[in-house]
Write a structure and sequence with these properties.
- There is one protein chain.
- By secondary structure, the protein is an alpha+beta fold.
- The protein is about 35% helix and about 5% strand.
- The protein folds into 3 domains: about 1-125, no CATH class; about 150-180, no CATH class; about 190-213.
- The longest helix has 25 residues, at about 190-210.
- The protein starts with a helix and ends with a helix.
Length: about 210
């Protein structure tokens, strides 16, 4: 996260402030947004993911409707890519007894690449005492080159939903990427029986080995 925010601050020549809320003071503006959407969606029918978009857009009129950006797999990037990482830690201390990450209350990512921090909201910002190395790539690679397929058993379960859906929704569920290998759908009872059998086999094998010794 720190590497991504630092990149954005440098890319768009802006200052990004990241705050860590304290217990008892965790209310954020987005909380009222979620409540507004929840009130609007109560009693609505959702047959497709696009139905959620409609509910969100129409949940509020003033001061303006909510904006929804539909994301696909091509949006997500691999921020664990070692060629991209310039910062290994955001700990404000290095030695035993010095401040730890959990004590940070605020971080600022500057347009010049510097990272500042506060241990208390009333403090002045200080420079994070962690080395920042040069980076091989300026933006991480795309995380997935195609949509992630669901398991064959999950796809079959999704097909069962079509029994209660209007026919115009069928194509969406038919075209969900899924693994082609046939999988046996195992119930929870069967899983428990299989696990119990393995435990009994393990105990029997252990007793036999002990008797041989």
């Amino acid at each position: 996260m720190a590497n991504a925010l630092r990149l954005l601050a440098m890319k768009y020549k802006t200052t990004i402030t990241q705050k860590f809320l304290e217990v008892g003071h965790t209310h954020m503006e987005c909380d009222s947004t979620h409540a507004c959407i929840e009130r609007k969606s109560k009693g609505m029918t959702f047959d497709l993911p696009s139905d959620f978009v409609s509910a969100i857009v129409t949940a509020r009129d003033k001061p303006f409707p909510f904006f929804v950006e539909h994301l696909t797999h091509s949006f997500f990037r691999n921020y664990d890519d070692q060629e991209f990482l310039t910062l290994k830690s955001i700990r404000p201390g290095k030695k035993k007894g010095e401040p730890k990450v959990a004590q940070i209350r605020c971080i600022q990512y500057m347009p010049d690449g510097k990272i500042l921090y506060k241990l208390r909201f009333d403090d002045e910002f200080g420079l994070l005492p962690q080395p920042i190395k040069g980076v091989t790539i300026s933006e991480p690679k795309i995380l997935q080159d195609k949509r992630i397929p669901v398991s064959n058993s999950k796809w079959k379960h999704l097909q069962e939903l079509k029994a209660v859906l209007p026919s115009e929704c069928y194509s969406f569920y038919d075209n969900i990427p899924h693994l082609g290998k046939t999988e046996k759908i195992v119930s929870e009872d069967e899983k428990l029986k299989n696990l119990t059998a393995k435990v009994k086999l393990f105990k029997a094998t252990s007793r036999a080995n002990n008797q041989k010794k």
